[in-house]
Amino acid sequence: MRFLFIYPPLRDVGDLFLPSGILALSSILKNNGWTVDVLNVDVERITDEEVIAYIKKYNPDAIGWSAVASTAYGYIKRMTQKIKNLCVGVPIFLGGNLCSISELLLKCGIDIVFIGEAEISLVKVLERYGGEFIGKKIPDISDIKGVVYYENNEIICTGISEKMTISDSIPSLESTFDEIDINYYITDIIIPSHYGLDQNNYLDYMKSGKKMIILMIQKGCQNACTFCHRNSRYTVYAVDVVIKHIEYLKKKYNIYYFRICSESFIGKKKWILDFAAKVKDLDIIFDILGARVDKVDYEILSNLKNSGMIAIMFGYESGNQAILNQMGKNVLLEDNYKAAELCDELHIASTPQFIIGYPGETVTTLLDTKKFVKKLKKTNISCNMLQVLPGTPIYHYAYVHGYIKDEDSYLMSVSDKDAAEFDSFINMTCMHSSYIKVMRYIILKVARYSVLPRPLYFIVMLFYNLLASAYLVLKLGISISTFKYIASVLFGIDLFGVYAESINIREMMRPYAVDLKCYERIKYGYFM
Fold it and tell me: How far apart, in whole angstroms, are the C-alpha atoms of residue 74 and residue 407?
């Protein structure tokens, strides 16, 4: 039997994140007797016609979309309809973060949507087909956890999938990468400029032909922020398994710079200290692209640095406690400061990440974030608009309060968009969108010039504040509100007097979730 995975394009250019989910599933299916191929459209960037030609030539018995991002909806909707016309009767499956909008996907032509991890459920579903796929109706799979499908015009949802044990899933780490062009994901070493590190310290790595790769060696997160659609449960491999995998990649592909891209890499302190002690012997450098501020201390960060870590990324998200509470971050503002101070003390690079435009955002909360950014003295930060995506309580909030009136139209509008783009931002605050846009601009400028001497900093920022004020007058006209907005920009004061509620959005929306159906609970992020 022939199974074809299709990996859709995510952004304007191919992503360097390894499609780990596809590789794991491919390994499992091959071990169960399937012939597996991967059509990596994200890398190959082929046209719709070329995709159809490839599928026609491969002639699969079943097709599986790997939708790691909700913003792939538009592409998958369009291509599923074309594939249905070509491969009449061939079942089409879908897994990944887009699974949360299962009812829309079923309407698009997807036969079965897989919820959560599909390592167990996919194999069970394929077995139920009994070797007959083309033209066959969906067999009885109601007892298999983690699937959503139509039966007698009714949506059947069996909840979250079973989770494969770590010991059973270990072989997927030692993948041969046969199904993908691994050379695309292995590149020359480049130390990101926004780290602000002295490149001369890494010339031995950068000019010796050594390579780098972005690697995910953990799954999930210990928390469930109300804006995050990657709410998978936290899973960690044994330290020795991770070290063995890194050593394997180093020896086979000459990789010396590992960019560890787990959602929240630092979990239990014992695990991370053991990892730091053992990875030190490998003589590599690495950075951590996802960690929680409440999971680090001096001992952890100093041990990681001594073992080769050059940078660590934290999602500070906001400089205001009420907004952090609405986001469900489950951290204190002091935790943000502590993590930043530790990185400074240990000379560890860290690019702060922020999200603005939350429903409770006010002039005061934005000013607090601006103050926080200034205090950090990090010239490069990431400051994105809130991106409302399915699988989250914030998506539920937007739908219930009428900000999303037609889900299909909305999801098409955010397809192929990222959080840095303002035109896909839903303004659910009490402020004008132009002011939020101005404050994002000001926050980025504050970060860039925060290291200047105090007098020079104020002169430079006065220039940008005046520019921002002129923009507000141009966009909003002359009014009392415009005057109040300008006062906040020029003098850092809030004349509106509106204060954010310190309520977790998930808890705020729970009364609306009582009567939700199974697939709706998944869509709105209540399955954790």
Answer: 12
- What's the N-to-C CA distance of the chain in angstroms? 35
Q: Would you say 302 and 343 are in contact if contact means Cβ atoms under 8 Å apart?
A: no
| Amino acid present at 254 | N
Provide the residue type at 386 as one letter: L
Contact yes or no for 508/398 (Cβ under 8 A): no
Distance between CA atoms of residues 246 and 111, nearest Å: 38
**401-435 burial, b for 16+ CB within 10 Å, e for fewer?**
eeebeebeebbeebbbbebeeeebbbbbbebbebb
Q: Which amino acid is at 191?
A: I
What order of strands is seen across the sheet that includes strand 211-215? 187-188, 211-215, 255-260, 285-291, 309-317, 353-356, 382-385
Give the whole-angstrom CA distance, residue 101 versus residue 104.
Answer: 6
Judged by DSSP in three states, 426 sits in coil
| pTM summary value | 0.93
pLDDT digits 0-9 by tens, 134-187? 999 999 999 999 999 999 999 999 998 988 776 666 665 656 788 889 999 999
